[in-house]
Amino acid sequence: MGRLFIQYYDKTTAHRCTTCGTHITAKQLVNWIGVMGQRQPAKNYGDCINVDFSSDFEQTLSSGTYTLRSVYCRVCRNYLGWKYVASGTGDPGNKEKEGTYMLLDDNLEPIEV
C-alpha cells in the first residue's frame, strides 16, 4: 500500500472534511444551494479533490432519475454526499448536473484563516 496523494486548495477558499480536515472543495466552485434527502442542507459543487467513490447506483430524486456515486473523503472515509454521473428521466435541463457533486453542509467546513 502506497502513500495517499493529497491535493490542496488555497486556504482562503477551501472547504474541508469535518472529520479529518482534508481539503475537499472550494467556495468559488458552488453551483447552487439546495437540500439532500430529508431536507439536509447541501450545496452543488463543480469539482472536488481528495475523494473516492462507490459503484454507480440509480436513484429517483424530486427532479428525476439519476445514476449517482456516493462520495467519501479519501483520508478518513467520511461520507460527504454524491456525484451525478448521468441523468435519466425527468427535465432535460438536468443534464447540467452531470459530473457535479452534491455535498452535505454538515460534512464540510470552511477553513478559517
UniProtKB/TrEMBL annotation:
Question: PROSITE patterns from the entry?
Answer: YIPPEE
UniProt xrefs under InterPro entries: Yippee (IPR034751), Yippee_fam (IPR039058)
Residue stretches making up the Yippee domain: 13-112
| Protein species of origin | Vitrella brassicaformis (strain CCMP3155)
Instruction: State what protein this is by name.
Output: Yippee domain-containing protein
Q: Which domain of life is it from?
A: Eukaryota
